[in-house]
Design goal:
The structure holds two protein chains of two kinds. By secondary structure, chain A is mainly α. Chain A has 14 helices and no strands. The radius of gyration of chain B is 23 Å and the shape is globular. The chains are: A mainly alpha, B mainly alpha.
Chain lengths: 287, 281
């Protein structure tokens, strides 16, 4: 591309450009990759190795760190808590999203645009402002420090974005399929369940992945709504662990915890990376 | 089916905001039934609170620097990747984007370790390169804390915006660039005359998007620097502190209201300031 077919004189700048340009790219690449790689291999070090040289590779695979984190650090319990909360949240979320998006995408009814505007508008609201009132409201319902309260709020806070994505998907499916079904005497519910859903499977999976990432990563809501240390979700649990003086010095275990928290997301990202990137950025460009 | 869902959403999702405004007019510990209506007193107190302004100043600094660096670098990388057709570009896209999906708390913890004076790789690398004199207690020293907190913010969002810009640039027809090249335009000119104007619309929207996300960097700061460091105080932590530690819910929600209005105002201002004639192709 540079200098081969160009009718212009090949300047030194043209030749040097590819090399020079690669430098910042590589620098940032290292800045992203190295911390992550460091995180993983550090989790296999002993505390002694840490103190000696933080950057060096571990001498062996000190798996004990993971066990320490899982048991002493309670990461095991937090993991289970989080899986429990997340499964229920995701189930409810997907159900609500699919039904709401379907209705909003397909049917023109009084108030339809209003609903849509409200959902989309709330995407722009700074979530942090609602933290205090949410705490107060959940508390007044007696749901503070319960999983139910957390689940409700997680579903509610993920709903707008979820609907946003799902709407996009539903709108790309031509109506002809359902119209054919209606002509054949199919009811709304059956049309939804047996025609729309299977066709939107890709969309559903993508939205599910997103929601999982968001719910797994949640910190603020868990912080505010859960006070019982036994009930903590994993992000919250790890963040608190880092501050406990006794645990603080066992860096290996902390890193093991950190890796365990990040690995699910990393795995999902590596497998589904393409779709994730596409959907997120398509939404951004549509505006 | 949709109606009950919406009602549930409105109750749990929208009402808190409205209530937030409402509570800010009270003085309340949150644990008793006593609520004293104090009108605008909370806000007046806010206006005279030096700690509040400290938090505001910190937040502003973080916000400005992170926005600037993120967008400039994201744009730079996007242009380089699209125009140069390096074969390893896909690798860059995949790696740069990842931090965006990483959990915020995990990012905070990771970077907290990176900045750790004794076991962190930042000081570790500096020592290895015999640059000992550049080592700091990054999160402990007042001068470096803000920078330390800003780094993960940039780290986490750069890839996302870069990929966004790449998609935007790829939407520009190649014929425009070819025509420009034939007319003798250099790469830089192609950028300023073609790429930038056409990307501008997307950039405007993305800046607004980034604003509402970054004013509220509560989770990151809380996990990285804790709540007790005034040099690392931001609006979000200030609000949290007053509500949950000092149990002054009225004041806390007043801060929340301020954040809300600030975000809205900034978004509107940005939309107005950056209004330019739409460049069509």
């Amino acid at each position: 591309m540079y200098g081969k077919r160009s009718p212009f004189r090949v300047s030194p700048a043209r030749l040097a450009a590819p090399i020079l340009l690669r430098i910042p790219l590589l620098i940032y690449f290292l800045m992203v990759a190295f911390p992550l790689v460091w995180m993983v291999y550090s989790s296999l070090k002993t505390s002694v190795e840490f103190r000696a040289n933080p950057v060096a590779l571990p001498q062996g695979f000190y798996y004990l760190n993971y066990q320490t984190a899982w048991e002493n650090g309670n990461i095991g319990r937090y993991f289970l808590n989080t899986i429990f909360v997340d499964t229920i949240t995701l189930g409810l979320l997907m159900f609500f999203t699919a039904t709401t998006s379907y209705v909003l995408a397909r049917f023109r009814f009084w108030g339809g645009r209003f609903l849509e505007t409200i959902y989309m508008g709330s995407l722009l609201l700074p979530g942090i402002v609602a933290l205090i009132p949410i705490f107060l409201q959940i508390r007044s319902l007696g749901l503070i420090n319960t999983y139910l309260g957390l689940i409700i709020m997680l579903v509610v806070s993920s709903l707008p974005f979820s609907i946003f994505l799902m709407l996009g998907f539903f709108r790309t499916i031509p109506r002809d399929f359902e119209e054919a079904a209606y002509i054949d005497g199919c009811s709304y519910f059956r049309a939804f369940a047996q025609i729309m859903l299977p066709m939107a499977k890709i969309g559903l999976v993508t939205v599910l992945i997103f929601n999982f990432i968001n719910v797994w990563s949640d910190y603020s809501l868990s912080l505010v709504l859960i006070s019982d240390s036994a009930k903590r979700t994993i992000q919250l649990g790890l963040a608190f662990l880092v501050e406990v003086p006794k645990v603080r010095t066992d860096m290996g275990a902390l890193f093991a915890g950190l890796t365990m928290v990040t690995i699910p997301i990393m795995a999902i990202y590596i497998i589904f990376q393409n779709k994730i990137v596409e959907s997120l950025t398509a939404g951004g460009l549509k505006i | 089916m949709t109606i009950p869902v919406f009602i549930g959403y409105a109750y749990f999702g929208i009402l808190p905001y409205i209530k937030g405004f409402y509570y800010s007019f009270f003085k309340w510990t949150g644990y008793t039934q006593v609520m004293n209506f104090v009108g605008l007193e909370n806000f007046k107190r806010l206006a005279g609170d030096t700690n509040f302004f400290n938090a505001l100043y910190n937040n502003a600094a973080i916000f400005l620097i992170s926005t600037l660096v993120t967008f400039v670098l994201a744009l730079f990388f996007a242009v380089v990747i699209t125009r140069s057709r390096f074969t390893e570009s896909l690798l860059y896209r995949i790696t740069y984007f990842f931090p965006y999906v990483m959990p915020t708390a995990a990012i905070a913890i990771l970077w907290r370790f990176i900045f750790n004076p004794s076991v962190g790789i930042l000081n570790g690398l500096l020592t290895l390169l015999k640059l000992d004199f550049w080592t700091h207690a990054w999160l402990g020293e007042k001068a470096t804390v803000l920078g330390a907190v800003t780094a993960p913010i940039i780290w986490g969002s750069l890839g996302f915006f870069m990929v966004l810009f790449i998609s935007g640039i790829q939407g520009i027809p190649a014929t425009l660039y070819e025509a420009a090249q034939i007319d003798g335009a250099g790469e830089f000119q192609q950028f300023t005359r073609i790429t930038f104007p056409l990307l501008w619309e997307i950039m405007r929207t993305m800046i607004v998007f980034f604003i509402s996300g970054s004013i509220a960097c509560f989770a990151l700061v809380r996990v990285m620097a804790g709540l007790t460091n005034p040099a690392a105080e931001v609006l979000g932590t200030y609000m949290y502190k007053h509500a949950f530690q000092y149990t002054d819910f009225g004041y806390g929600t007043a801060v929340g209201v301020f954040i809300f209005i600030l975000t809205l105002a900034l978004a509107l201002i940005m939309r107005r300031l950056t209004r330019k004639e739409l460049v069509e192709y």
